[in-house]
Design brief:
It is a single chain. By secondary structure, this protein is of the alpha/beta class. It has 9 helices and 10 strands. The strands form 2 sheets. Strands 2-1-3-10-4 form a 5-stranded mixed sheet. The chain is globular and about 55 Å long. It folds into 2 domains: 131 residues, D-Maltodextrin-Binding Protein, domain 2 (3-Layer(aba) Sandwich), CATH 3.40.190.10; 107 residues, D-Maltodextrin-Binding Protein, domain 2 (3-Layer(aba) Sandwich). The chain starts with a helix and ends in a 6-residue tail after the last helix.
């Protein structure tokens, strides 16, 4: 009898096991791995395939038929556009709020914040493409509110994503504006606050509310629904906070 029950259980697991394909904004590069691991504890039969990139590019790809069933954006604008266009199963909900940091290639006194970008020490300043990356748009907004945009505009170098901003800042740019969450990666976790990086005054940019949506490919798929629900769970919120996000 035990063998029969075991066989039935294994058959059920096989029937419900599968793979889900998720488009994930680049600022989530590190926390997403912990989110996957935590989700796997309760859903060991589900393989979560993560695709990292800029939110704007994913939005264009989804509109052109990319086979994603879920989209975790770096803002609310792009997933809202997908919902309004009929590509999403429901309106987006905020899962976390991101923060912007100023990163320096070489250790220096960063107490001056964004004003340092006007100095002779700043020849190139990297930001993510503001048209496709919400953190890039936030960086531009911060420059304008700080009153330094006109002075530093010729110095700006655009990266495709905030992950690439980190690469640029390590190799070619003197400074870069990226997501606080990326400070947890191997490349930056040894960096010192105040010398290698500093938080950008949140009053200088609109809060970076990040939202997710289930897409048409996820219709009637219990595994996508389970991962989506997990992203809004207390367990996921704890992980987001650990990586520098604000979760209300």
């Amino acid at each position: 009898m035990k063998k029969v029950l075991l066989g039935v259980m294994l058959t059920c697991i096989t029937l419900f096991a599968g793979e889900i394909n998720v488009a994930v904004a680049a600022n989530l590069s590190y926390v997403i791995e912990e989110l996957k691991a935590e989700f796997a504890k309760s859903h060991p039969g589900t393989k979560v395939t993560v695709n990292l990139g800029s939110s704007g590019k994913f939005t264009a790809q989804i509109k052109n038929g990319a086979p994603f069933g879920m989209f975790m954006s770096a803002d609310m604008k792009f997933p809202t556009a997908l919902f309004d266009g009929g590509y999403a199963l429901g309106a987006p909900k905020i899962y976390a709020q991101g923060a912007l940091v100023l990163l320096a290639q070489k250790s220096t006194d960063l107490s001056g914040g964004l004003s340092l970008l006007q100095s002779e020490a700043a020849h190139k300043v990297a930001i993510a493409n503001p048209k496709t990356a919400p953190y890039g748009a936030a960086a531009l907004e911060a420059f304008k509110k700080a009153g330094i945009y006109e002075a530093i505009a010729p110095k700006l170098v655009q990266a495709e994503s905030i992950s690439q901003v980190v690469s640029f800042t390590q190799n070619a740019a003197d400074f870069g504006l990226t997501a606080a969450s990326l400070l947890h990666g191997d490349a930056l976790k040894s960096k010192v606050e105040g010398k290698d990086w500093v938080m950008v005054d949140p009053a200088l940019y609109t809060p970076i509310a990040q939202g997710a949506v289930l897409l048409k490919a996820a219709k009637d798929n219990a595994e996508y629904a389970a991962f989506y629900d997990f992203i809004y769970s207390d367990a996921a919120a704890a992980l987001f906070r650990r990586y520098g996000y604000i979760v209300k």
